[in-house]
UniProtKB/TrEMBL annotation, chain B:
Keyword field: Cell membrane, Membrane, Transmembrane, Transmembrane helix
CDD domains: TM_PBP1_transp_AraH_like (cd06579)
Protein name (Swiss-Prot/TrEMBL): ABC transporter permease
Localization per Swiss-Prot or TrEMBL: Cell membrane
Organism: Paracoccus onchidii
Matches recorded under Pfam families: BPD_transp_2 (PF02653)
Length: 259, 334
């Protein structure tokens, strides 16, 4: 593993660990719309970063840049201190950057097991090893305390919360270094939100860097260590969770931050 | 004190029926057709007639298996009938030019694959709707067949081994029927048990999700048209071997029979939902109806009307009734 040779200018009480994923000057334009205007962001192992902002502030776009869905027009991405470029989500996935998409990206006509192993099917000879995938899927869901009655049911038969749980389990179960989550709790019921937040803490404890894009402010204070606020395609502020409060964040989001 | 109890898991049988409702319904319809024609005609259930049905259904079954893959990706291949005509004519011309049938057969399969690859490239990499590309293919390929043969039927001579493919029997079963059963079994295994089959379903179910998880989505989408080209070439060879000639007029309306068989079997035109077993049953149902109506001495002009009507009614029942039977049952049970 390469150690980052970039000097940290942190200077706080606790010197921050070198970032696992570092974005520098990310710009992206769609037509006439400047979606991102030079965003810098550090993401550290074992830490949860909350990404907040109003609609169209650029938080989803930024998470999609990190997951390889969008290729930025300018700027640099470093993983473990090495500059990387990914043109597709598959390349980001190969570098252990996983994403839970807001639309979940599940195949409705494939069963739960098949969706968990989508694109990573286990094979025995030329055939799918369905018994082993079923066995491992049960273990995966049990480790995250997700309960699905029948793993051979098609995903279209499941509830919104169950579908979301499967999308999260898929991203969290294959040893990611960075786990990006775009609104993972938006469609969930109370108990399911609790489960997801607990899950984020558990994934964090394993040393994974988690990025949480959300509208739900109460979730931020439960799991995030740092919070970055997006406004009109720029990152306007970054706060440690213990140094801020709900009112300050709301002011920053709506543009009353006093910049 | 609050006590929590958990829901009981539903019965395995109900799950099974709900998962396979469409295949079960077409199976029932198929059995009903067998009983109907068996009781109204004296010859329908004779082994000779049933083997004849199998022999005649063989080319449709071979292409329907490939068409199941195409329709699973939410695509369509309208060019299969014209492809059969072109390969059929090409095979006869090649053999008339002196090339042995042993070389001609693989050459024709490659030709089918190449034509399929061109269509697949336009559909997948150039994003032209499959309906348009294969509609153009339908016209171009039939035209090419007419141009090459100038409209004449080209006889195939002195190729006993080739004719065996279309007319021979093996252990009492017609060879084309055996070939089509092998193709159907291969299709079933590929669809249900291999990574390629999983990729085809994923691309049809959610193309963007398939791309995001790293599946070669575009290549998979193009590949199903190659499969359909190869299957059409195989069907063309079976037809040429049975008739002993190659003609640009072969397989008129073939694509409609194939598509009807696949849709009758429960494969959704919207993509993602596929049933290979349903395709086999759908093909056999169409073949049995065609054969049974002839045995009942119904006017051949009337046969087309009846076949079309039955397909419409069967698919209507499939979508309106059998898509959600368990909600009805559950309501009455509770």
């Amino acid at each position: 593993m390469m150690v980052s040779d970039i000097v940290q200018e942190g200077g706080g009480a606790v010197p921050p660990s070198p970032p696992i994923l570092r974005l520098k000057g990310i710009e992206i334009t769609f037509g006439s719309n400047q979606a991102l205007r030079g965003v810098d962001l550090d993401i550290r192992a074992g830490e949860c970063l909350g990404l907040i902002g109003d609609n169209a502030a650029g938080k989803s776009t930024l998470s999609k840049v990190m997951s390889g869905t969008y290729v930025p027009d300018a700027g640099m991405i470093e993983l473990d201190g090495r500059p990387v470029r990914f043109a597709t989500p598959a390349q980001a996935r190969d570098l252990q950057i996983e994403m839970v998409y807001q639309d979940l990206s599940l195949c409705d006509h494939i069963d739960v097991v098949g969706n968990l192993f989508l694109g990573r099917e286990l094979k025995r000879g030329p055939f799918l090893d369905q018994p082993r995938m079923l066995q491992e899927a049960e273990a995966m869901l049990a480790a995250l305390e997700i309960r699905i009655p029948r793993l051979t049911a098609k995903v279209e038969k499941l509830s919104g919360g169950q579908r979301q749980a499967i999308a999260i389990a898929r991203a969290a179960s294959f040893q990611p270094k960075v786990l990006l989550m775009d609104e993972p709790t938006s469609a969930l019921a109370v108990a399911e939100v609790e489960a997801v937040l607990e899950l984020i803490n558990r994934v964090k404890a394993r040393g994974v860097a988690v990025v949480l894009v959300t509208h739900r402010m109460q979730d931020l204070f439960r799991v995030c260590d740092r919070i970055a606020v997006m406004y009109e395609g720029t990152k306007v502020a970054e706060r440690r969770t213990e140094d801020t409060n709900l009112q300050e964040l709301v002011d920053l989001i709506v543009g009353k931050g006093g910049h | 004190m609050v006590t929590y109890t958990e829901r009981q898991a539903g019965s395995k049988l109900a799950d099974f029926v709900a998962d396979h409702a469409q295949v079960l319904s077409i199976a029932l319809f198929f059995i009903a057709c067998l009983i109907f024609f068996g009781s109204t005609t004296s010859t329908f259930l004779m082994p000779g007639n049933l083997l004849n049905v199998l022999r005649q259904a063989a080319p449709i079954l071979v292409v329907a298996v490939a068409m199941t893959l195409v329709i699973t990706t939410a695509g369509i291949d309208l060019s299969v009938g014209s492809m059969v005509a072109l390969i059929n004519a090409l095979a006869a011309l090649t053999m008339a030019a002196g090339l042995g049938w042993v070389l001609t057969v693989p050459l024709m399969l490659i030709a089918g694959a190449l034509i399929g690859a061109v269509q697949g490239w336009f559909i997948s990499y150039q994003k032209i709707p499959a309906f348009i590309v294969t509609l153009a293919g339908l016209s171009i390929l039939r035209g090419a067949a007419l141009y090459l043969t100038e409209g004449y039927s080209i006889p195939i001579r002195d190729a006993a081994g080739f004719f065996w493919l279309g007319r021979g029997t093996f252990a009492g079963v017609p060879v084309p029927a055996l070939i089509s059963i092998l193709v159907a079994m291969l299709g079933f295994v590929v669809m249900a048990r291999t990574q390629y089959g999983r990729q085809v379903i994923a691309v049809g179910s959610n193309m963007e999700a398939a791309r995001r998880v790293g599946m070669p989505a575009k290549r998979v989408l193009a590949s199903v048209y190659v499969v359909s080209g190869v299957a059409s070439a195989l069907a063309a060879i079976l037809i040429a071997a049975r008739l002993g000639s190659g003609s640009s007029n072969a397989a008129q309306g073939f694509e409609l029979q194939v598509i009807a068989a696949v849709v009758l079997g429960g494969t959704s035109l919207m993509g993602g939902k596929a049933s290979m077993l349903g395709t086999v049953l759908g093909t056999m149902t169409i073949a049995v109806i065609g054969n049974g109506l002839i045995l009942m001495h119904i006017s051949p002009f009337f046969t087309q009307i009846v076949t079309g009507t039955i397909i419409l009614i069967a698919i209507w029942m499939n979508t309106r009734l059998f898509d959600r039977p368990w909600k009805l049952r559950r309501k009455s049970a509770s």
